[in-house]
Amino acid sequence: MKDTHKRSTPVLWTAIVAASLAVIVTAGVARAGEKAAKASAAARATAPAAGEEKDFAALEDLVYDERYQQAYESAVGFLKKYPAGRRAEAAEFWKCYALQRSTRDYGRAFDCYTVFLDRYPDGKWSDDARTEYAKLAKRLAEAGDPRGKAALDIMRDSPDDAEFKLSVLYALIESGDDALALDAVRDVLKTSKDPELRRQAVFVLADVEDPAVLTTLIEVAKSDPDADVRRHAIYAISNESEDPRVLDTLVSIMKSEKDPDIRRHVLYALAEVDRPDVVKILSDAALNDPDLEIRTAATYAIAEVDDPEALRALKVLVKDAASLDIRRAALYALIERDDVDIVPELRALALSKGGGSEERELRRAATYALAEVDDPAVDEVLAEIVKTSDDVEVKKAAFYALAAHGSPGARETLKIAALDTKDSELARAAVYALGDLLEEDEAGFLLEVYRKSPFEDVRLAALQTSISLGGGTSAPALGTMLETEKSAEQRRMIVWALADIENDEAVAILARVAKSDADKDVRRQAVAALGSIGSPAAKQALRDLLGGE
Q1: Coil, strand, or helix at residue 476?
Q2: Which of the residue ranges 226-230, 252-256, 457-461, 529-533 would you say has the lowest mean pLDDT?
Q3: Using one digit for the tens of pLDDT, what is the confidence trace for 451-479?
């Protein structure tokens, strides 16, 4: 039972200090009296609580010892003694439970549970009571007692009460009468307006051992008005792999269903069916369905099939699918499988020589895919692509794949490419790839690229990447770069790199740039950088600039 006493509002001590001594004394006496009264009340409450616990423990011992007649009598006496006690609900349940087992008078026990559920509809023991109630309702209905039939009919005739109805369904299954349980589940699926209850009823069917279960699931998968309920029914159907109707049903739903999301789930449900013609069905969908999303989903579903035939099917799709999207999806689906050494396949594809746009795109996809493969041979293959491929886009893809794969050899390959003096596009791509790979303390290499590269765009990329890494370049080094840098754009970037350093050396350099740089915008950026630093030295530099003007 919850404590309904509320705590007193905390006393405001500042008000007490301002009050008179007499008031303080009076309040103290009152508080002392209140404490004494509470202590006395607690003392009076302790003895009955201890007695209640002792009596309840004795009642439970009788139940657990299966001395049900004595347990029933003990529960009746307990409830007379503690009608509003903390254990009253549990004692009420055990009274019905013991009555049912001691007398076998199912009608009386049923009435007992009816009273309990009316009194404690949401109690701690209500789920257990509903289970026993449903079992007794079944027994009474079989014996022709109208109370039993009325209780079972409540699932159809009353407003939806999902929790109650589910407990009844599970109770019927536990009773061992699968036929009656199946009838009850069907009734819920046909009459309930609550889609969540119908979805749960689909789960309940999984526990019913009856050949008619599949028929019911097929009806739900094809006709339930709620897409989520149909989806769960579809996956439940796929668990009945041994029934020859399963494949025909799922294929039929694929053809008739208008909801593309449901069709997609049908494909993944098909992948769970352990039958030899599944791969053929999925391959046909991957090649021929008019919806690209469905073709893509069918391709990935093939990857989920635990059958060597699925591997062959994916290789065929990579080679022969008319759509680049499907060929690429098949490529990535192959990576997900454990029954193929994919590195040689990807290498051959990345180094292929086809001249069409789709072939080039597939080579790039194969190169990127190598980054997803956990195999030491990948770095060697990517380095080979960098050296031998005559496709610039594929080489750039190899740079980013090397960075993503992240092995020690990748650094060396990318550093060599970043210092390339023949191709600025590839050198720039290598710099950006290094930005994904290098740590902050390795940013010095990028400044080396900045100093050595003959290409303006590569130098800019190196500077940008170095700054983004936060490489801790010293203020004097950046000051030297400012003095020699001809590009205004790059000087602006150096200005903001100095702003990140925030020390007095950086402030002095920024003040000099703000005063004397040849480019007006660079000067303006230097002033803004000083403002962003906001240190005493920066504020003084700004005042000096005003005085100088």
Answers
A1: helix
A2: 457-461
A3: 888 998 898 888 878 877 765 567 787 88
Q: Of all helices (H) and strands (E), which one includes residue 342? A: helix 342-350
Contact present, 75 and 59 (Cβ < 8 Å) = yes
Quickly list DSSP for 4-58: -PPPPPPP-HHHHHHS-HHHHHHHHHHHHHHHHHHHHHHHHHHHHHHHHHHHHHH
Confidence of residue 156 (pLDDT cuts 50, 70, 90): low
Distance CA 438, CA 436 (A): 6
Residue type, 13: W
Instruction: In whole angstroms, give the CA distance from residue 436 to residue 426.
Output: 16
448: its two tokens? 């080396």
Rama region for 341: left / alpha / beta (φ>0; ψ in -120 to 50; rest): beta
- CB-neighbour burial class of residue 205 (10 A; exposed 0-12, middle 13-18, buried 19+): buried
Distance CA 528, CA 106 (A): 87
| Boundaries of every domain in the chain | 406-473, 481-549
